[in-house]
Amino acid sequence: AELERQRLKRQKELEEKLIEEEVARRVEELVAKRVEEELERRKDEIEAEVRRRVEEAKKIMEKQMLEELERQREAELEAQKKKEEEEKLKRKELEEIMAENNKKIEEAQKKLAEEQLKLVEEQRRMLEEKQRMEEEDRKRKKREQEVILNKKNARPKLSFSLGGK
């Protein structure tokens, strides 16, 4: 009788277990069916929400991209401005160097012209001195010639006397 009672108890437990499993399976199927029905019923609403979120994310990304492009454009403008300033500064420095060089060239040319003028003046003075000396030499030779030829009574008279006193 004890064995029979244990066998019946096990059979009852087995039946209860099978019933539990069947109930769980049916509940699971029912839940899945209800979820599917609910999803089907709210399909348009869910798709609309997904589209709305996608659009929102898209707008945020577009805004971020536009902001990034604007930052890049401003950075490029700033770099261009800086480059132009540097070029302007270099151009100014070069102009100053050129002006300084032109001034030095002008001073050197002026100095050279002064030296050439001094040289020409010296040559003129030497030529005048040479001409003066040549003129003096010519006059001296002429006087000597006159003395020799006794022109204009340039020579004192000589008197010779013969006879004694």
TrEMBL record:
InterPro entries: ARGLU1. It holds the Pfam family ARGLU. Residues 128-146 have a biased composition (Basic and acidic residues). It comes from the Eukaryota. GO terms for cellular component: mitochondrion; nucleoplasm. Residues 128-165 are annotated as: Disordered. This is Arginine and glutamate-rich protein 1-A. Transmembrane segments: none annotated. GO terms for molecular function: cadherin binding.
